[in-house]
Amino acid sequence: MNDCPVCSSKNFKDFYNYGSHQLVTCLKCGLVYQPISIDHNEYSNNLVKEVYDENWVLLQDQYKMDTFKHASFSLNLLRAYLSSDSNILEIGSGTGEFLYLAQKYKYNILGVEPSFTACTYAVEKYQVNIINAIGNLNNLKFDQQFDAICFWHVLEHIPDPHTFLRAVKNHLKKDGLVFLSVLNLDSFTNQIYDTLSPLFSEHDHLLHFSATTLKLLMNNYFKILSFFSLEEDKRLESDLNALSQVQLLRKPTDIIGWLDIKSQLECDNHGHELFCIAQVKTSAS
Question: What is the pLDDT of residues 224-283, one digit of tens each?
């Protein structure tokens, strides 16, 4: 994957070498990504075994409240567009919290998760409908097409996003929806720490999208219905604390000042995450 995974440009420059992995910047579209020389399926298989093990599941359990808060927010996005009898596929279900909440709301939802350990946890903890699978989504056979497919913080782990999104589209009904979130290249955290940001040092993050590159990718297959940025409260507090230590910056002392910063970051697409809701493109779109 030396060519840009979004625009296929062969022109890039070094971003930073982290030892465990290297990042480069596409000179055409601005995507920051890992150049990968081995087979994509082999790379993904190795990554799942290395990263998403028992220790990762235990870490998810430790931050359960935050995970459920995020899952609840994501569920509310679906509720704005879909009736409770909709058929939904979640890709990258992790330890199953979103599946659990969606089932509680009476959605007909199925999860796909590459980590066997995470699948086992999800079934034992929440009794959710989840299958363990890894590799090309086109190789999975379902007995139906879906009203919606969602993947929260998954796309940044996919070496070939075009192949992935084409497969997503194939599994959707003709007016089907996609709901997704990714980490934001232009986040406040990355602006503060630059190449030393902890978000860049995690070697399972293969692609780092900005609002521009994510829209560029999605517009190939879908009509974007909603696009926005979201800043995490705890992360903003941590970032402001760090910034106040190195600059003559006074942190806001009241909730109004704090919310003003948060709102401005989100309005400017500098929040921690990017969210996109889109619909399958038809010939008339």
Answer: 999 999 999 989 988 988 887 766 556 677 788 888 999 999 999 999 999 999 999 876
DSSP-assigned beta bridge partners for residue 224: 278
Residue 252 lies in a domain: no
User: Using an 8 Å Cβ cutoff, are 159 and 40 in contact?
Assistant: yes
Distance CA 78, CA 84 (A): 9
Q: Compute the Cα dihedral for 137, 155, 33, 114 and give only its sign.
A: negative
**In terms of residue numbers, what domain contains 125?**
41-199+207-231+271-280
Single-letter amino acid code for the residue at 281: K
CATH assignment of the domain containing 136: 3.40.50.150
Strands 32-33 and 207-208, sheet pairing = antiparallel
For residue 45, the SS3 value is: helix
- Assessment of whether the complete model's pTM goes beyond 0.85: yes
